[in-house]
Specification:
This protein is an alpha/beta fold. The chain has 2 domains: about 180 residues, Flavin prenyltransferase-like (Rossmann fold, 3-Layer(aba) Sandwich), CATH 3.40.50; about 45 residues, no CATH class. Helix content is about 45%, strand content about 20%. The chain starts with a helix and ends with a strand.
């Protein structure tokens, strides 16, 4: 059973990336492809296949890919996997010094695939002590679009409810900054009753935060389980 769960996580992340690939490609469909700045964070091997799928789609669309790695990503299979992909593509991407320093703002978009929990929390707190934080605030300060997908750490259903609630608040903070966050985003609802018809309007795999007094019908609970929607009550 544990092995089956491990095998399903990369596939789930790859499916979540379909939406981000479409958004990145369509964001500039009226313009000539330009440079995309990409920052890899974390060391979760589960996110690698989805990230490489995204790099491949962007490469095929003609974008110039510039990639930086956080410390944790550079020390893991994430960087090795990206290097192997790049070698097979004849050097399609350029790997840059992780620190921004005085790099020109000639990129059209900043993309952070599989954003790690550590980087998510630091960006939301306004810190600038890692590569992802530096690039996000550098891009936002120059009116560049920033898109991020959530890594496995940010969407794991086994996390304590208090931590998942904190993650939800951090995601909301990034969105207030102007960052487009894609993936299995937690949803908060103030309904007093969740019925079957409400569940069928939700997205499979997301997290649902409810007031402790909210009632859920038996049919709705069955549908929540079938759609793999995790419910957290009593906040």
């Amino acid at each position: 059973m544990a092995e089956a769960r491990k095998e399903s996580r990369p596939q789930t992340f790859a499916h979540r990336l379909d939406a981000i690939i479409s958004q990145v490609l369509s964001a500039h469909r009226q313009a000539q492809p330009g440079r995309l700045q990409i920052v890899m964070t974390g060391g979760e091997i589960e996110s690698l296949s989805g990230s490489l799928k995204c790099l491949e789609a962007l490469h095929r669309a003609g974008y110039q890919l510039r990639i930086s790695f956080s410390h944790s990503a550079s020390q893991s299979a994430v960087k090795a996997g990206c290097q192997l992909w790049n070698l097979k593509r004849g050097g399609a991407a350029r790997f840059e010094n992780p620190r921004i320093q005085s790099q020109p703002a000639d990129f059209i978009l900043l993309f952070l695939p599989s954003l790690s929990l550590n980087s998510l929390m630091k960006i939301a707190s306004g810190l600038r002590d890692n590569v992802a934080c530096e690039w996000v605030f550098y891009a936002l300060g120059r009116q560049k679009k920033v898109i991020a997908t959530l890594g496995p750490e940010c969407t794991a259903t086994w996390l304590p409810s208090a931590l998942r609630a904190l993650i939800a608040r951090h995601i909301a903070t990034l969105q207030q900054y102007g960052v487009v966050v894609k993936g299995s985003q937690p949803v908060e609802r103030k309904d007093r009753l969740i019925a079957l018809r409400d569940v069928r309007l939700m997205t499979p795999g997301q997290s649902l935060y409810l007031d402790r007094n909210t009632l859920i019908t038996p049919a709705a609970r069955d549908e929540l389980r079938r759609w793999n929607i995790s419910v957290i009550q009593g906040r």
